[in-house]
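[Meeting: bench + compute handoff]

Bench side (C.D.) handed over the final construct sequence. Compute side (W.E.) agreed to return the predicted structure before the next meeting so the bench team could plan truncations. Sequence as handed over:
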Amino acid sequence: MQLPVISECAAENCAYNQDHTCHAAAITVGDVSTPVCETFVSADMEGGEPSVTGRVGACKMADCRHNTGLECHAPSITVGYEHEQVDCLTYARA
């Protein structure tokens, strides 16, 4: 299975974000009740690998239409702010 790519990230203050691109090797989405990006970390230093475009490693949002077996099957996702937290904006309740 190919992990879904993070096509855009609007969380500019995340250590893994450089120019709206996530450079974490893989993120985790969801805290069971909300599609929060659990990998988000606000930091002054840069994280991740500049040559890597982030992907979704795991998703805890079992009620998402893109989720099968806690794995994301969307072709790509967008991460950004919703209600002042960093969420997967591709999340869609099944």
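W.E. noted at the follow-up: The mean pLDDT is 95. C.D. will use this when planning the next construct.
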